[in-house]
Amino acid sequence: MNLRAVASAALSTKGRIALVGLLLVGGTVGGAFAAGLLGVPSVAAMNNTFGEVTNETTTIETDLVVSNPNPVGIGLDDVSVNYTVSMNDIEMAQGGREGVRVGTGNSTLGLETEMRNEAIPPWWVSHVRNGERTTIDIDATVTSERLGRSVDFSRTREIDTDLLGAFNSDETRPVNADSAFTDDPILYVNETRGEWGSVSESETPIDMAFTVHNPNLEPYVVSEIGYDVTMNGVEMASGQTDEGYVIPSRSSETIEFTTALQNRHLDEWWVTHLDEEVRGHQASDLRIEFYAVIELPSGTELTVPLDELTYEETIETDIFDEGDAVRDSDETGADGSTEDDGSSDGTDDGSSNGTDGGSSNETDGSTDDGSAGDDTDDTNGDSENETDGSDDDSDSDDDGILPL
């Protein structure tokens, strides 16, 4: 008897049996997905933060919570995840990953994409034109080519600022020359007004008006008003008026002029805005300083700093509703789960609390032809509301997301 031939035949038989078994299992799993017995993974939540910032780029770090409603982990080469971050319909960043593997329950995938800082000036223009309001849209899609299905997730958030509101004032402020040639105060500013002008791609004008009162018996001439505008120390505008104004004796005159922020400096400002060490979390200091060149009745000209008119306002955004939370550098979540390892964290809702310096609304929702979205409401120190919504046109929720 040929023992080698017998052993070879036995091994070959076992190999065929094993192969048939694997094909049966694979066919069963694939058939179960096709028949709707197993659920399609969906996006449960998405949390974004800003990472490393350079003069040219800003890294957006994304923790995408994928919900797998099945009792087993899934690793399909044809499953892909894509997401887009837009601000006032201006695409700021786009990223994704193919060949995603997820465990049971909720798994967190860590993604990174780079945003070009040159996108900041166009966004700023849209923000000012829109009444200092920005709508942030975050859209994600999980797609399986094998199953021919995709699940969408969207989050919408609004932020607003008010940079010039406090500049509008009826407070009377003295103008002191601190000079031996005249007594102080030489003039009074009884009113200041400021509003955005017609914004272009290159400039953001601020139309200003000062109501100046002359308490003296002789007319005074304001031959020039100069200004310097900075944001976190970055020079945004500098200049002076082109004409002089005569302020009659014991009368008032309105001086009107326009400053123009240079939008080309906005990407430089953006770097400081995201630097936590400068002003804190996504905060900036807008500062406008003025001086006046005043001609006395004697003909003497004095350059007078208008310190009482110096304007300061804090800009806060909190674009991704992070609050003071900072994404762990080792990509480990607060609940101890790690990204992209196929494990279930079961607790990450992808949201965090924060303030943006104004009122904001946030809406989360996931849509699919058989899936529903479920997330938790979130409130912050301002008047912020977050609403979760879903769109389900099927009576079955087998392929929906798991509660977070």
From TrEMBL:
Pfam families: LEA_2. It comes from the Archaea. GO terms for biological process: response to desiccation. Residues 349-364 have a biased composition (Low complexity). Residues 43-160, 189-311 form the Water stress and hypersensitive response domain. Residues 316-404 are annotated as: Disordered. It comes from Halorubrum aidingense JCM 13560. SMART domains: WHy. Residues 331-348, 365-404 have a biased composition (Acidic residues). InterPro entries: Ig-like_fold (IPR013783), LEA_2 (IPR004864), WHy-dom (IPR013990). This is Water stress and Hypersensitive response domain protein.
